[in-house]
Amino acid sequence: MSQAQSQQRLPLFVCSGAAHSQARFEHKDASDRSWRRLHGFTRPFTAIFIAFWISWVLLALSLFGLMTRFLPDPFGWFIHWILALVALAQISFFAIAALIDTESHTVRDARELHGVARDLKFIKRTGHAIIHPTTFKCGICNVVVSRDTFHCRQCNKCVDDFDHHCAWLNACIGKHNYGWFIATVSLGGLLMPVCTGLAAYAVSIFFRDNTRYTAIVSQLVGVSLRGMPETVLAYLFLQCLVGLIISVGVLALLWFHVKISILGITTLGFIKAEEQLKKTGKIDASLHSLSATRKVLSIIKARTALSRVGKNNESVSINMSTPSAASASVATQNPPISVGNTSECPR
Ligand SMILES: [Zn+2]
Ligand SMILES: [Zn+2]
């Protein structure tokens, strides 16, 4: 692969990363396979990635320029600075998660140490995996990878322990940045409810102590602006509503990752298991590499799924490496789910 090919220029901005990668992969020009996105801050930038940064800045301005001002002294400033540190940590973790190149080290080493070049002639056929389902050789990266590796179409690279391609980070989440991603979501799950609570508290001041409310708003925006207390009140109401929606979303995401972490699977693995359960009534759980505790938890999950499906009078079997532990029928001859041998990104 020549240097010119490897530096193929991508567009600066696209509305949707998924649509962009779809167009790229449907393109029959083989030289198109040479491009690879290093991290979230490399082109193309997506609308949702830019929207995140604008929203974050606006939210920080609201939180520290308006909402914390309603807190009573002397604790108000203390809480203000604690929240500022948490917000700084959160955006730093976000940037780190987005900046890490999540490319599989197996692929990177093969390229850098052994000069393995990409297969520029590879053509993605609908329904066929980029990584071969049995040999685990990536058709584009030209390297045999591990079973938990996935070739992300939006980044056009193999990612070890692929979890998902995050539109907010504009990057893949995998082995090398999953911890930073979880740290970012965790702090978001802390900040957003606090932010919403502070907005609600400020609204309550309007009704409980209107004189103090008006004095604070006047101090912030100037006494000459008529109708400003009511305008700020409407903004605070909006902040409560939006903050509540985002809080629920972030906490649900965090809870989901706690669940799959306990089960020892990735987001992609979870999606595949759900799809398989719906289609075939079976769960080919990838339990061979999991610890005993995780196996037990997976069995509990499988039983929950059984009872759910059982209510609909559907037959269900579970493929497990420990047949006696499962109450359902066993079919170990089927290959277990592998998050790495699939062809499509979940997004
Ligand atoms: Zn690959
Ligand atoms: Zn990706």
Automatic annotation (TrEMBL):
Q: Where is this region: Disordered?
A: 327-347
Kindly give the membrane topology term recorded for this protein: Multi-pass membrane protein
Which EC number(s) does the record attach to this protein?
2.3.1.225
- The signal peptide here is none
**Superkingdom as given in the UniProt entry:** Eukaryota
Q: Per the record's keyword annotation, is tRNA processing included, yes or no?
A: no
Q: What class of enzyme is it?
A: transferase
Q: Residue ranges under compositional bias (Polar residues)?
A: 333-347
Q: What is its main location?
A: membrane
UniProt entry tagged with the keyword Hydrolase = no
- Palmitoyltransferase DHHC domain residues are 137-272
GO CC, one annotated term: Golgi apparatus
Q: Which residues cross the membrane?
A: 45-66, 78-100, 178-203, 232-256
Record key words, sorted = Acyltransferase, Lipoprotein, Membrane, Palmitate, Transferase, Transmembrane, Transmembrane helix
Please list the coiled coil stretches. Answer: none
Subcellular location as annotated: Endomembrane system
* Membership in a protein family: Belongs to the DHHC palmitoyltransferase family.
Can you name this protein? Palmitoyltransferase
